[in-house]
Amino acid sequence: MNFTLRIxxxxxxxxxxxxxxYKVQDIEPTCSFLEMMDILNERLTERNxxxxxxxxxxxxxxxxxxxxxxxxxxxxxxxxxxxxxxYMRHFEDGDEITIEPWRSAAFPVTRDLIVDRSxxxxxxxxxxxVTVHSGPKxxxxxxxxxxxxxxxxxxxxxxxxxxxxxxxxxxGAAMLYTxxxxxxxxxxxxGQPERFERVQKMVHQxxxxxxxxxxxxxxxxxxxxxxxxxxxxxxxxxxxxxxTLILPNNPRGKMDSQ
Amino acid sequence: xxxxxxLYQSVIGKKAIVAVTGSIMIxxxxxxxWGNLKVFSGATAAGVPExxxxxxxxxxxxxxxxxxxxxxxxxxxxxxxxxxxxxxxxVQLARHNRKARPVHYKxxxxxxxxxxxxxxxxxxxxxxxxxxxxxxxxFTVGGVGSAPFVQGDVYGNLYGAFQxxxxxxxxxxxxxxxxxxxxxxxxxxxxxxxWDNPDRNKSLRMLSVALGVGIFLAFSAIPISFFSGEMNxxxxxxxxxxxxxxx
Lengths: 258, 247
Hints:
The structure holds 2 protein chains of 2 kinds.
Chain A (H helix, E strand, L loop, with lengths): L2 E7 L8 E7 L8 H14 L22 E2 L2 E2 L21 E5 L8 E3 L2 E2 L2 H10 L19 H11 L6 H5 L6 H12 L8 H14 L10 H5 L7 H15 L13
Parallel strand pairs in A: 1-5
Antiparallel strand pairs in A: 1-2, 3-4, 3-5, 6-7
Chain B lengths: L1 H8 L1 H26 L13 H11 L9 H31 L15 H4 L1 H21 L12 H8 L3 H28 L8 H28 L5 H4 L3 H5 L2
Helix pairs in contact in B: 1-2, 2-4, 2-8, 2-9, 6-8, 8-9
């Protein structure tokens, strides 16, 4: 198969970039998208052209490293997959394919198709944890969890933190990511002690990183390789509003009588 | 108050303010629309159109606990404050969002989930705000529009205004815009407040369709009926306007 690739090239965070056109010939249909990129880079290197910088790691759809907006869609045209699980047979021979990096103020482009996603790490550090005691190992089944709750928590925990939700959102919002992280801990009994503190800290960090706000478009859900539902955004909103408006600031305070 | 301040500081809180003020305005629209439909109720035995009686009630309601006309003013102020908060929050959020996505993709965007009404909220909303100024100048303050404005003569004012196709087209057009705004807004408020979930989602989506279509039909029935000659002339409808104003 032959393709015409229009790829975003940018030397570093401080220089302007632009799309460059490359032709790739004789690509096997069984080739994955990233293997096709490897072949392109090999051929570019042979011609003494700087290869295209892009992120990848596990190449089996679970690490969340690959991050390409292919023809305007994060992770490309196939639903529920990451870029590494996209194969060239999903395209037509002779296609023109445009490849761009994630676009968001909070994800600056560091080179070509690579963006800095450490804003996500800082959101996690702000509250994406549970406290565990350091004593003897507890009996694993000591805390009963209703199976449907466990499954729902796992649906949220499917998030691989790739950032496709941010890339797909016209507002560059990280609501789906943050809500998945808030929910997978907040649904489980082990996550209850910090539940409301967590949602406050993580939402404030999300805002401090410069992510946008939610317009309820659900474009994030459509782009998510793990097909995480926007129901978690509603759940996060509810927890956030409850902790902002209703929960007592000073539950141990004294009260005076009249 | 610090809680409300914290709410206003956060983007989720601002969205919640937009949702709550939006639902207050939906409530107002439902009451307004229900009241307007009184134009189809004919006239009292004395010949006063039912809609004029209803308009008078809007000022007398709450009397004698409240002074004459004050209940209506309370409603007006609540709706006005809601509108102002709604617009301020939306403008601030829109600015914040533009900063969050400074660079656009070169490849054309194909929206998969976001519907046209959802993406047009800022435009449909702006049209409604502009229309509101005109609408109040025409039917509350008076002085704008082709027909003379008589305070209290709701039926006559409507009849006069909607003899002109331009006004009929304007009102029906803007009602369609409001319907489109509500189609997304009425569902969106449940999601923003965290009240939507997979069990209710279908019902809430249907509710927002019903609300958008219902508001459009109820409000546009009035200009269309006056224009098509469906409704009696005000003089035939109530002969004793003069006697009523003397009471």
